[in-house]
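Researcher: Going back to the complex we discussed earlier. I've cleaned up the inputs and rechecked each line, so this should be the final set. Can you rerun the prediction on the complete assembly and write out the structure?
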Amino acid sequence: MTDLAPAPTTKKDWTSDQEVRWCPGCGDYSVLTAVQLLMPELGARRENTVFVSGIGCSSRFPYYMNTYGVHSIHGRAPAFATGLAVARPDLDVWVITGDGDALSIGGNHLLHALRRNVNLTIILFNNQIYGLTKGQYSPTSEPGKVTKSTPFGSLDQPYNPVSLALGAEASFVARTHDMDRKHMMEMFRRAYEHRGAAFVEVYQNCNVFNDGAFDAITSKENRPSMLIPLEHNKPVRFGPNGEKGVVIDSHGSAVIVDVAEVGEERLVVHDEARPDPSLAFALSRLANGPYSPTPIGVFRAVERPDYGALVQAQLVDAASRKGPGDLASLLRSGTTWTVA
Amino acid sequence: MRGLDHVVVRFAGDSGDGMQLAGDRFTTASALFGNDLATLPDFPAEIRAPAGTVAGVSAFQVHISDHDIFTPGDHPDVLVAMNPAALKAHLDDLEPGAAVLLNSDAFDERALQKAGCSADPRADGSLVGFKVYEIPMTSLTMQAVKPSGTKARDAERSKNFFALGLVSWMYGRPVEPTLEWLQRRFASNEMVREANTLAFKAGWNFGETAEIFESAYEVKPAALRPGTYTNVSGNTALAWGIIAAGQLAKLPVFLGSYPITPASDVLHELSKHKNFGVRTFQAEDEIAGVNAALGAAYGGALGVTTTSGPGLDLKSETIGLAVSLELPLIVVDVQRGGPSTGLPTKTEQADLLHALYGRHGEAPVAVVAPATPGDCFYMAIEAARIALKYRTPVILLSDGYLANGAEPWLVPDIDALPDLAAEFSFATEPNKVLEDGTEVFWPYLRDPVTLARPWAVPGAPALMHRIGGLEKADGSGNVSYDPVNHDLMVHLRAEKVAGIARDIPPVAVDDPSGEAELLVLGWGSTYGAVQAAVRAVRSTGAKVAHAHLRYLNPFPANLGDVVTSYRRVLVPEVNLGQLRKLVRAEFLVDAVGLNKVAGLPFRRLDVQAAIVLELEALGGHFDGNLAEE
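Model: Rerun complete. Updated structure for the full complex:
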């Protein structure tokens, strides 16, 4: 590997020769495009980039990136990627996953990758449905959802992925949606530049099995009144004319208010870098799905040593204290005796 | 002093009594004295089962000898029993006439009740035929350690060193190794060091002066091969083998593991040696452990995961992915009693078919099994060699007996170990020219000899590729659902693993006369018991052959010829006949089995009796006086 700056690349350089096989109109296309457009801007090296995915529609993603890629096992991408990132701290490792993959079968691995702060950029495509298996409810589907496996309505309480990530001690948590390429690219850029585990939830439309699931908040006409943009060091405010805002009540909950009623100075000023995650968590509880005004943007971005770097530091420390490993001495490190 | 050629000592007490430690120190002293030896720790799964109960008994058996031995011994010649439960648990195992050293302080009404004894075994005739020595070990210990200033409650805890001192005297063990060890171990805790030292010396002196023992015994040093020896357990040897494999391959080791009995000590040992560049990752679960190891292997590390049976169940899907990705991966399964949670601390060999076939689809992997604790070192290196050269998962089947058992081990000459770096290389260049003249990299273009695909790790601009668990087109590695291609790939993966047979040693047959009609075919940890039994039977003039498998998949290339050249094949296994099933299926040989699944290794006598039965079926006669091991 050289120290030279990578040669400039274009979207085409990051596009593999494989035919993209998602359903026409799938939201996955816009996420793919956003990533392929972003990579040249990041100045990343293709050969040092690995996309690791699990199983599901979105997990076909690595095949379409002209980089290294592994389409692994359902739910296990964070675990596979952890081994890779820890063994190879020089690589940019991305994890591509979905709501079934990351939150159902692989929930455990997601939690622990976030908790350890493994240097991974994790993109969760949340379409609130199982697409690849043709339309069963997922851990983010709304209660009462009628699907092939829930003909009388789902009985499950869904997760809020952002709340979950915050609860798992994630150092970077963001949300975006597939109808806004610019916002997606910004969130992916922030996630990429974050050292440690970065988690981005993407609200993504499945036009075959769950079409329009996010229309209530992401359609052009609804966005101004239904999306709450989170911006660092700015009051949390939204609405076509900024007439709505968010305050923190006496119990620490985030509450939507009319700015005219409470006054601008009472609005909470977003601080993504706060070490304590309770503000981010309170904001994440404003909406538990795309049914009411929903915050998007970076909820939390704090500095914490990344796991791979800590592992590396222990190796260096051990070698400096004990000297580099010597096999002959190791094999004689117990009680020895000599037979003549 | 009377000479003995071998002796089997078992220390037994409550799991809090320090019997493993006493046994371990006795073993080390014997090793330094020059005896050959073999050990068998036997402890409960619970950290502290109810004190004084049979369930809570912890024992450590050691067999010391003046000649080469293969097993920890069938029946103890000496039992140290620290309480009634320990006596009750082990009485049936004793050799007739064995010495029983009882801690008589521990035989009160309440202790007898806890042990479930309806009567005091010292008085009800249970001990007839044994040489019983009742010694008030608790009170003698408390008396002895008084000068150390230890509180009464703590003083009592040194009684294992009293017992160790007494047994050390009985067998003329050198005291210096134990005294030196106490100095080192308790360097920062003077009171405990002093108490244990006083107790140990008191035990020794009690033997010397109490005049209740007719004499001390001597087991002379064995004539071992010259060289430097150390005492290793299978788990330690395995961990060292993995470190050695990384050094020999010039690859960083990455261990992804989740704690599980009896495999955790491999994780512990590897975690100590970060100065070798060994990364150990205690994962959130078994599945994450193996996936992280596979991810590291994808990145160019020597990926290893360690587990026991329940963990192997959980890792199955990922081992299948490793078969499909064709990446090197070492999966260590330290087998224990199953099914389910089963017997976590007890040994078994019942994961063989699981290792070979326990995945969906046609998913062949290489399988190896060490024969002795020290062999774990060599088989770990061999597992790495096969994994790296053939880009395949290799399952290494150890077991609880090998894991915790120890033997004197001739420390190998580093320079004589195989050069693993010469067995593989990373891909660096495009390997295919398309019709239009473009040079490309095909991740599934195989080596024509080994059928291994290139190992192309991220970082190389010319080798970028995407692969996964979906079926891949031969050569290009692109996703393929083509039926003909799938059939081809299934065959290629099978042929690749089968072809490893050309690259492993033929199975050696131990048949001194060349005229045996019975072959005893073992694998894994049964080596010691089978070899001891075969030697004992041969001492009568009978002819019997012994072959031992360390490669279970593929089998050594000559195995078919070997098993078909004997009239009778006996397969002893600590399972219900898994190798036997394979031998019958592969070679159409009507092999018979010796199968005992009691959570314990075979005794020599078990195997010996089965051999005698088979020889009699073939027309042999025995007078019943078979030699001792």
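Model: Worth noting: The two ends of chain B are 22 Å apart (CA to CA).
Researcher: Good, that matches what I expected from the previous run.
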